[in-house]
Amino acid sequence: MSIPEKIRREVASLKKAIERHNRLYHSLDNPEIPDVDYDALVERLESLEREYALPSDSSLSSSVGFAPLAKFSEVQHQIPMLSLDKVFEKDGLRNFTKRISKLLGTEDLVDFSCEPKVDGVAVSLLYEDGVLKRAATRGDGKSGEDITHNILEISCIPKTIELKNVKTRLEVRGEIFLSKYNFNQINTQARKEGQKLFVNPRNTAAGAIRQLDPKKTTNIPLEMFCYGIGVNEGIALPKVLGEIFFVLEELGFPINKDIRQSSGVEGCLDFCSELYSKRDLLDYEIDGAVIKVDSLLSQSLIGQNIKAPRWAIAYKFPAEEKITKVLDVEFQVGRTGTITPVARLEPVFVGGVTVSNTTLHNMDEIERLGLGIGDRVIVRRAGDVIPKVVKVVKSEERQSIKPIIAPKYCPICMSPIEKDGAVLLRCTGGSSCSAQRKEMLKHFVSRSALDIEGLGDKLIEQLVDEGLITDAADIFSLDEAVLLKVDRLGKKSSENILVAIKKSQETTLAKFLYALGIREVGEATALSLANRYPNLEHLMLATIEELESIDDIGPTVSSNISTFFARKANVDLIKRLREAGVRWSVLPTIKNTNLVGKTFVLTGTLESFSRGEAKDRLLELGAKVSATVSKNTDFVVSGPGAGSKLSKAIEYGIKVLDEEEFVTLLS
Ligand code: IVH
Q: Is 611 left (phi over 0), alpha (psi -120 to 50) or beta?
């Protein structure tokens, strides 16, 4: 078949790219593109090779890794360490199991070992006469690097094993990884010390395992899950994988507790869906599931090709890291004037959603990343955590990258920007800045504040832009004629909004104080203030010292409160709000409940309450509600759909309540 020039060129350029990424990934532990993008290159090359009958055995797509770095001594794998073929859809898995049944010539359900595909580094451990003699990386599958010196530092790996027979050789294979918990600990420490952060657990583990100096490996608490056997001389092992895992466990090898045996494709599909839904709850990163024929005899009947066994398949999950481009960086102005850089991204599907912008937090973060406009970046979104830029992918075209410069003037009101502390930037415009006014109003009407339904962000922006309202008190003089003037707002919606405004006038002092948006006065602090000063006038006259004597209120917050009430504009606003009909009844004093001062985190959905209602009930009882789980959390209330907060709770050993237990506790 004649091969068009265009195709030849594409194949050559694909090979060049794959070779480069292989080197970056396997030898330098510094991948420039996420795995999915790499997979796409390989798949394209393979499909062209198939279509044009190009030789593929010597091509890069069939190489498993990359030749070892010269600095390590080389280890020949007596039995090659293979890779896995991949599927991305249920149908791919169905085709795989159909193929297996056909190859085995059976209509019975085939037994499979269903395993999490741990995202780490494959290694081989060789025991001679029960003693760990040599450990090696996979390398290019035929030969890898000798990393024995580093493996000896990993506590969960047995250095000797007790075998009945003498004269034995046993090769155990598995994945070295770093747990999510330890990865976060290491990065928290690195951040404190102003050091470069690690990108993800896999790269950190790969870097640690390939250190020439084992002391550097010791600093990274690596773990391992064993998932297979290579060489075996002199040991009688069971004939199915599931039982081999038991034997390995008895010998002291770490085996993943999330491995299951199932029969037929449906069992495997169930395993994959379950694994996917608990992905966030696992303390190790996975990029899919591995489905393997359980019987070793069947495995050898089915056989393998040069790259991968035919008896196993990787079922890949959507990637949690993707590459995209930073189109621009905008500076957003918050309610209290804080200026936050936000990256506008070329939309990218990552971690199951499309992401088109993400916060960059502050200028320090931009500097740490070495980020410029036009840069290609790795964006990570794992679980329900907000997406973040984790790494800039340095390209050769640095000259087209524009630097990100901190603004000197507010992008909205042009007031000067001042530095607040080490990293924060703040617009000095106060309520003369329309962006700050809009954010203040959005906060004022939000659910935990005056809770005015229907007065959404868009509408507030329009009302401010059209000069129809300036501050919170103006909300109460809105009428139908004014609302109808606003774009696309019909009679019915206007009426509903007016009813909601009216309803919001009856509130609590705590909600009112929170709604005022005093810097760093969150819901819990507002409640403490309302309990201590049921009479607002008394609070307005309280001294800093008095305020500081309230539980949980430190010097910064008490000074913020005192400064707030010292400003005439704020006192006037409060007066106008009260004149406009905003009122509250004095809260009944909190009963002596055992929840006072306890910190709760809510995650997932509850049936008998909305999250907001549950939060209100807790606050009324004197408990605190936090959005993040920390060592100080007392209880995590978990409903269906709970995410990473639940896994953190388990990790920290915090008491987790289901809805029933929570309701009992409340009553
Ligand atoms: S079996 C002959 N099982 O995935 C089969 N691999 O893409 C070879 N991996 O190199 C591997 N978890 O680094 C197997 N439970 C598991 C795995 C697993 C992660 C990695 C391993 C392998 C790569 C193949």
A: alpha
